[in-house]
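Lecture 7 notes: from sequence to structure.
We start with the chain below.
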Amino acid sequence: MKLPSIDHIPVPEPLKEPVERSDLEHRDLDDSEFWKRIPAFRHVTPDEFLDHRFQNRNSAKSPQDLKDLLRDLAPESFLEDVEEGMRLAPMAMRISPYILSLIDWANPYHDPLRTQFIPVASTRLPDHPALTLDSLHEQADSPTPGLVHRYHDKVLFLPLDVCPVYCRFCTRSYAIGTDTEEVEKVDYKPAVERWDRAFAYLASRPEVEDVVVSGGDTYMLPPQRVRYIGEMLLAIPHIRRIRFASKGPAVMPMKILSDRDWTDTLVELVAKGRALHKEVVLHTHFNSPNEITDITRRAMDVLFERGVKVRNQSVLIRGVNDDIDDMITLVRRLSFINVQPYYVYQHDMVMGVDELRTRVADSVEIERHVRGTTAGFNTPTFVVDAPGGGGKRDVHSYDHYDETSGISVYRSPSVDENRVYLYFDPIDRLPEEGRERWEDPEQHPAMVAEALSEAGLEDLEPAATVPDALVPA
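Predicted structure tokens for the same chain:
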């Protein structure tokens, strides 16, 4: 498409100083053959690397796989640390060659991608007393297995329990991936009979207009299964919005380019939805600007050209994106490749990864700096998914927050007006007074009682996921 030139128009004098080069770094997308830094991929051609089948076949699923792929690239002491970290981890390991190749193996302990996907025992912290495996209380809100109905008009549908990679911080460590030494998983295997029970329930609930299809990850479903789910949901008259959720574009963007049947199926569902005046979109999950390369841009260009809207939901993770400049770069880079920054979640209170959580105060401060750095529609909302099933609350909308105890108190009247929802900051980030009080279990109920009293909500019941040992008598 030929566009007009502006070369003949005089350039006016600028009103502002020229921007620094660093202000444009979000446009710098790696277009090199970066995977050749990995010994096992040194002779892999671009065509091979861009094939989603190569990515799936060569994903690392164990510490031994890491050793075989990296060879002498990472120190033996680091790999031993990983082996012990995996023994303690609630999530199994699965890392795509794409992500593996983007990790800085000269400094793996401080790399944001390694931090997300590969545990090490040396950084592990004891679990906060309030942590659980199902902090969002999803199973208690499930009328049928794999269907969560919490909000009035929205449901979460979990058709499968596998992903192209496994995130250490997964909010569904109770179900996703294979069993580990620490966790025996709930079974959400992809079974049409189970799906049909979910569709029957949805057809019986006329208030439901919005369905999030997550899991697991729809990236891992064959095209005919994606089509079946999409068409069944579109056939239910009152369902108006369908969101397919996938980590895939962040960890295996080449699938959009090389798995044409899968991409065509998604595009067809978007078009069918549009013809029915219904919205079908893709929600994805980038956490670090380091995940985004020129391959990502090319994949997102395909979806953009073909009319697929893509939104992003990040998680605020210590050592990954809790730096103000890194978060601003992530937001701008997503906007640059036509992915709309939608949410940044406070890290869920799941067991086994407390060293990845940040304080509520950190989220509030980062949002303060992010807001105004780009257009409002490309500025994500920072939220707490209130533990115990309260749903998403703006992170700064707490009724009370004590930075010493780390307890924040939220209400969610549209979900349950008789309950309060508590988020607990990681203990190691609290001031000394707070850390000392958490060392004494007898202090815990008093700390919760104080928070509820300061919020003026002592008559309300804490959500069910708050352990009994923390609930005031």
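Points to note: The longest strand covers residues 416-424. The radius of gyration is 23 Å.
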